[in-house]
Specification:
Layout lengths: L2 H8 E4 L4 E5 L18 H16 L3 E11 L7 E9 L4 E8 L5 E11 L1
């Protein structure tokens, strides 16, 4: 299964604060990142952010740039992640990725997208 399809499959819906993803242990990126100590790669976290913008706008989006990224703690298998988006100008967004239960912050990313 491709990572893009896995992100779509992981999408659990929108709650009052953001877009929720349940990242199962079977998520394909865990296979090679890292053996014996799986964690969700940064590129997949960017994929979650881009997917969330697509859900918010109703359009298929692709990443066009990353202005700033801070990865605070790893996202491990079987974790529920909320992507909270703050729109900026010119298709730029600030995202905070949080654990849906504990509220722990996984990452903060400022990025831009374009319509696919």
């Amino acid at each position: 299964m491709q990572v893009t399809a896995a992100i779509e499959k992981s999408y659990h819906g929108k709650d009052e604060k953001g877009f929720v993803y349940n990242i199962a242990a079977s998520f394909p990126a865990f296979e090679g990142h890292f053996k014996g100590h799986p964690l969700l790669p940064a590129v997949c976290q960017l994929g979650l952010c881009t997917h969330a913008v697509g859900k918010m706008t109703g359009k298929k989006m692709e990443l066009s740039g990353v202005k700033r990224a801070k990865f605070i703690r790893p996202i491990l298998p079987d974790t529920s992640v909320r992507v909270e988006l703050t729109p900026r100008e010119d298709m730029e967004f600030a995202a905070v990725l949080l654990h849906t239960v504990t509220g722990e912050k996984f990452s903060q990313i400022t990025f831009s997208v374009k319509e696919f």
